[in-house]
């Protein structure tokens, strides 16, 4: 089972903690200035994707660090 990552675009402030500091392996700054899932892991919307198990801890670190709790890491 691969973890699903969801970024709440209404909550994200574009602070950059996830894509600059905690987990640039999964997150990237999008055109809108908000956090996007990197293209290779994306499933449709820029804020949603499916990541390999090996990146779960990385994504969870970003979720914990996000100041507005906009990132969710959930099971498929
Ligand atoms: S840490 Fe949270 S608020 Fe900051 S860019 Fe990432 S998702 Fe957005």
Helix content: 10-25%
Question: What compounds sit in this structure?
Answer: iron/sulfur cluster
Which series of helices and strands comes N to C? EHEEEEHE
Could you tell me how far the N terminus lies from the C terminus, measured between alpha carbons in angstroms?
6 Å
Integer average pLDDT: 96
Question: How many whole angstroms does the radius of gyration measure?
Answer: 11 Å
CATH class: Alpha Beta
- Biggest sheet, strands in spatial order? 4-5-1-6
Percent range for β-strand residues: 25-35%
- Given as residue ranges, the uncertain stretches (5+ residues, pLDDT < 50) are none
Helical/strand content category? alpha+beta
In CATH, the architecture is 2-Layer Sandwich
Total beta strand runs: 6
Enter the CATH topology name.
Alpha-Beta Plaits
Overall description:
The chain is α+β, with helices and mostly antiparallel strands. The radius of gyration is 11 Å and the shape is globular. The strands form 2 sheets. The chain has a 4-stranded antiparallel beta sheet with strand order 4-5-1-6. The protein has a two-stranded antiparallel sheet with strand order 2-3. β2 (27-29) and β3 (35-37) form a beta hairpin. It has helices at residues 17-22, 56-65; strands at 4-7, 27-29, 35-37, 42-43, 45-50, 71-74. The N and C termini lie close together (6 Å). The chain has one domain: Alpha-Beta Plaits. The mean pLDDT is 96. It binds iron/sulfur cluster (SF4). Residues 7, 12-18, 35, 66-68, 70-71 line the site of iron/sulfur cluster.
